[in-house]
Amino acid sequence: MGLGTFKTGWQNQTKAFGHDRDSEYSCLILDNRGMGESDKPIMRYSTSEMAKDTLEVIDHVGWKSKRQLHVIGVSMGGMIAQELALTVSDRIASLSLASTAARLVNTIGYWENLWNRINLFIPKSPDVQLADIKARMFSQSWLDAPDALGGFPTNGDRFAAMELMKRQDAKGFTRKGFVCQAIAAGWHYKSTAQLQELGDRVGRERIQIMHGTVDNMITLPHGETLAKELGGEVAGVTKTIIEGRGHVLHLEEEERYRQLLERLVEKVERLDPS
Q: E strands, the chain, where?
């Protein structure tokens, strides 16, 4: 998962894949170091070290076969997924990178970019904090739409309730954990050469990039650059740009997101596993 989020953020997708279709799929989700039920050491975090954490969990459950892993990473999780794919390329069956980047660059102007980064760490009242998070994470149309599950007036209200509940978990959500994760995401860097290597080793036909056009957390040019430097669509990379959607595509486009994942799984199962 991404910066400051718990593994429960995947619950709609894990229910669909790991529960409703448990004869076809097995799902493994985890809290990244610094959040939720994982340890929160005070040290310099990096996406490469967090990928090692992930690999230790994968190895622990015994998923060590060639082309066995369908890896899905969102935002900071997509950065970690890049590191994981470079580490165990031959074990990657498919790699889905959503709302993420090879490296963070300024696409919106120096002062606005600087303020946005500083703003992440400024203490705010809950109302202001929630409004800021919602604006960064979601499209306004999704926030304003009726809650699909019916328990709240809108999607935005449901998200606000879930975010408040998360932030009231004094053990799971800590400022030190958030800052350490933010450092890891902020300093993540994969060069064009490293992305070319990733594409070569994993296989570009096994990789898909997904990004929303109104992502205010990691802007669309990051996704475009990532897809291009991996080799682009002409070389086999699948790129899906979702019009009018924000950063959290697996919530905003829940059904379409599932379909994109299923389509890639079906595609790679027909490929030579070598």
A: 69-74, 92-98, 207-212, 238-242
Single out the residue of 147, 141, 144, 121 nearest to residue 132, CA to CA.
121
The model carries a pTM of: 0.94
Q: What is the DSSP string of 63-96?
A: --STT-EEEEEETHHHHHHHHHHHHSGGGEEEEE
Phi and psi at residue 165, to the nearest 5°: -60, -40
pLDDT in tens, 65-101: 999 999 999 999 999 999 999 999 999 999 999 999 9
Q: What is the DSSP letter of 31?
A: P
Q: What residues have CB less than 8 Å from 179, skipping those under 6 apart?
A: 121
The pair of structure tokens assigned to 42 is 């005070």
Count of residues in the chain: 274
Residue type, 17: F
pLDDT at 126: 78
Mean pLDDT rounded to a whole number for the chain: 93
Measured at the CA of 79, the angle between CA 269 and CA 2, to 5 degrees, comes to 100
**DSSP secondary structure letter of residue 32:** P
Cβ atoms 166, 1 nearer than 8 A: no
Note the pLDDT tens digit of each residue in 235-270. 999 999 999 999 999 999 999 999 999 999 999 999
